[in-house]
Design a protein that fits this description.
Length: about 200
């Protein structure tokens, strides 16, 4: 029994101290929680309730590790549809209700840095993204016809991420935080995923 325990301990230690493979491509996918904030009350005070949304999101990504410390990675995030509703009374139109639907999509490219640890690897990335929001607002008015507004707004900026990953030969698990710099707002996501090296 003691010999079996010793072998198991040695096996776990060898995994924990395994170095990240170098000069390799990798590809993976992940799921997470996405949050988007923007102060829309500057457009209309009734939009104040639409300033903070959270939903699920999915991601696909891939990259190349030059060595155990540096690499490059590209990724695509897509959120679920964020929905919310407010009620109010307009001095001219009377009572109304308003629905909002928002979708977020982002394509990014980042330079990556890795810090091998005894238990796995810490990582961080900094780069640039292109994204767009699909915004749909519908106002239901008691006095008159409903009003409908839809737009697709492209934007871009800096993006960053940090997290930890655990390697098991050509397979690895990852937990990460990502952030997008948006003029007038912010977007961030927490996610977990897995990737394969080849």
């Amino acid at each position: 029994m003691r010999a079996l325990a010793s072998l198991c301990f040695l096996g776990l230690t060898s995994v924990a101290h395994a170095q990240e493979p170098t000069n390799t491509f990798y590809a993976g996918a992940g799921l997470g929680s996405f949050t988007y904030t923007e102060d829309l009350s500057v457009i209309d005070p009734e939009f104040r309730s639409f300033s903070n949304f959270s939903t699920t999101a999915w991601k696909i990504y891939g990259g190349f590790s030059f060595n155990q410390y540096l690499g490059v990675e590209g990724g695509y995030w897509s959120s679920g549809t964020i929905t919310d509703q407010v009620y109010g009374t307009d001095p001219f139109f009377g009572p109304f209700s308003m629905n909002a639907l928002i979708d977020f999509r982002s394509l990014s490219l980042r330079g990556m840095g890795y810090l091998p640890m005894s238990w796995g690897t810490l990582f961080g990335g900094l780069g640039y993204y292109d994204a767009d929001n699909d915004l749909t607002y519908t106002a239901f008015l008691e006095c008159c016809d409903d009003e409908f507004y839809r737009s697709v707004d492209p934007f871009s900026g800096f993006t960053g991420q940090f997290g930890a990953q655990w390697s098991f030969s050509s397979f690895a698990l990852r937990a990460e935080y990502e952030w997008w710099d948006i003029e007038g707002g912010d977007a961030w996501a927490f996610g977990v995923g897995a990737f394969w090296r080849f």
